[in-house]
Amino acid sequence: MAIESFQGKVAVVTGGTSGIGKALAASLIDEGATVVITGRNPETLNSVAAEIGAHGIQTDVTDAQSVQSLADQVIAEHGRVDIVVNNAGVGPLAPFSELTLEDFKWVMDTNFWGVVHGLKSFLPHLESNSGGGHVVNTLSVAALMHAPGTSAYGASKAAALALGEVIAKEYADKNVKVLNLVPALVETRINENATSRPSHGPESSKMEDFLPPLPVKDPRDVAALVITGLREGADYVFTHPQTRGPIEARAQKISEAFDRIPE
Ligand SMILES: NC(=O)c1ccc[n+]([C@@H]2O[C@H](COP(=O)([O-])OP(=O)(O)OC[C@H]3O[C@@H](n4cnc5c(N)ncnc54)[C@H](O)[C@@H]3O)[C@@H](O)[C@H]2O)c1
Description:
The protein is an alpha/beta fold. Helices cover about 45% and strands about 15% of the residues. The chain is built from 8 helices and 7 strands. The chain has helices at about 20-30, 40-50, 65-80, 100-130, 150-170, 190-195, 220-230, 245-260, and strands spanning about 10-15, 35-40, 55-60, 85, 135-140, 175-180, 235-240. The protein is globular. The mean pLDDT is about 95. Bound molecules: nicotinamide-adenine-dinucleotide. Nicotinamide-adenine-dinucleotide binds near residues 14, 18, 89 and 91.
C-alpha cells in the first residue's frame, strides 16, 4: 500500500522535537501533510513546532493514558489520522553488567511499551479510514545486529520489530501498512539523551566505545528515505548499506543450524 500524495494527510510523530523525528516531521510537512509532533518539554515542543510548522502536543510515550489523550486530541482537532510514527526512543549503550534493572525498565518502557501504546491508541483510527493508514516504527539495526553494549537497547528494538511485523500481518486486510525503519548511526541527540538513564553517573561507560565504525548520517537523509519508503509501500527502510553484511551473516548462521537437524 503506497502513499501517492501526502496532501491532506494527518501525521503524528512521537519524539518529534529533535533528531530523526524532527527531520521526518519537517519532510512530511514539505510534502503537504498536517503534522502533530510530540515532546515532553513544553518550551522545546512549542519552539520546534513553530520552527517547522507542526502542531505540538505534550506526550510521554511510556504512559498509556498520555498517548490515548494524544490520539483523542488529534482526532478532536484534525478529524483524522493517516500516518503514525512511533519514533520516540532512548539509546543507552553499556555492558550488561553495568545496566541495572531500572535501566532495562526505562528502555523497555520507552522503546517497546511506547510503541505498544501508540499502536493501541491509533490503530482503531487508521483502520477506520476509508483509505487505510500507515504506521512507521523507528527501530534500529541493534534489533538485528547484537553487538556488545546493546543488551537493553537491542532487546527493546527487537521486541518492537517483532511487534510491528505481527501487526503488519494482522492488519494487512484492514488496509494498515507498517514500515519498519531500521537506522544505524544518525546525527541526533540520542547520545546525550542516553545520559538520563536511571543509573548513569560519572563512572558510566562512554557511549562512543560501543558505536559501530560507520558514517554518521544526516537525519534529513533518513527522512528522505522514509518518504520514499512510504511512497513505495516498503516494509523496511535501512540507512547504512554496511549493516547488510552482518545481518545476512546472522541469518546465514541461523540457516546453517537447520542443516544440522538430523533427518
Ligand atoms: N541516532 C541514531 O543513531 C539512531 C540509530 C538507530 C535508531 N535510532 C532511533 O531513532 C529514534 C529517534 O531517536 P534520535 O536518534 O532522533 O534521538 P533524539 O534523542 O534526538 O530523539 C529522540 C526523541 O524521543 C523523545 N523521547 C524520549 N523518551 C520519550 C518519552 N518517554 N516520551 C516522549 N518522547 C520521548 C526525546 O525527547 C527525543 O525528542 C529512537 O527510537 C532511536 O532509538 C536512532
